[in-house]
Design a protein that fits this description.
With about 220 residues, the chain is α+β, with helices and mostly antiparallel strands. It has helices at about 1-20, 20-30, 135-145, 160, and strands at about 35-50, 60-70, 75-85, 90, 95-115, 115-135, 170-185, 185-200, 205-215. The radius of gyration is 26 Å and the shape is elongated. It starts with a helix and ends with a strand.
């Protein structure tokens, strides 16, 4: 009688054991391959070493972007981003820099670190259209003869840089690393850091610090 009860219990537990097996759990997990995502990004840009070879400075500006991507496999994705500047930056209070618009294409790899979070890295190319112009103070220094300026205001100015396109090279490589966290079903918060563009003519070396929200479907 006891043997029959034990046998019946074992048979009853077999379906539950199968459901809890790694193969069954993996089958229940939603695969990312083939899924598409859209997102909204807020960015702070650090314009470093903006100069004409004689002077140097840096500035912070802001922009907002939209992203559209797809997972071409479980660990690889391609992505398109486009955006525009929302707040310009000032280099040494003399040169104002801003991004009119940009378009970036990335290919990246991602790796899950928990059931709800992934780390990833992306590399790609960007087309950037920006502008640079002298501030009133920068124009005063640039247009006033050096002999008429106070000693502390004498020296090179940003006039030549303001007369150039910014960036002078409209295409550049871009890269970033990031982490995303699933906060509700299929919706992720993400944070990123990376290089936005480098311009050999203006010497601008611009880094991006991103945060945003994306939805996968």
């Amino acid at each position: 009688m006891n043997s029959l009860l034990r046998l019946s219990l074992a048979v009853a537990l077999v379906p539950a054991a199968l459901l809890m097996s790694p193969q069954a759990v993996n089958a229940q997990e939603e695969m990312r391959e083939g899924r598409t995502y859209i997102g909204l990004i807020g960015t702070r840009l650090n314009h470093r070493t903006v100069d004409d070879g004689d002077i140097g400075g840096q500035a912070w500006s802001s922009m907002t972007s939209l992203q559209l991507g797809t997972h071409i496999s479980e660990n690889w994705h391609v992505e398109l981003r486009t955006g525009t500047g929302v707040a310009s930056g000032k280099v040494d209070n003399e040169l104002e820099v801003d991004i009119d618009y940009y378009v970036s294409w990335y290919i990246g790899g991602n790796y899950p670190i928990t059931d709800y979070s992934n780390i990833y890295a992306q590399f790609g190319f960007s087309h950037i259209k920006g502008e640079s112009k002298l501030t009133p103070f920068g124009r005063f220094r640039a247009e006033t003869p050096q002999t008429e300026l106070p000693e502390e205001l004498k020296g090179p100015t940003y006039k030549d840089l303001a007369d150039m396109r910014y960036p002078e090279s409209s295409f550049s490589t871009s890269w970033l690393v990031g982490v995303d966290i699933e906060v509700v079903d299929d919706s992720f918060l993400f944070f990123e850091i990376g290089k936005f563009f480098e311009d050999t003519e203006t010497k601008a070396n611009v880094f991006q610090y991103n945060g945003g929200l994306k939805y996968e479907f």
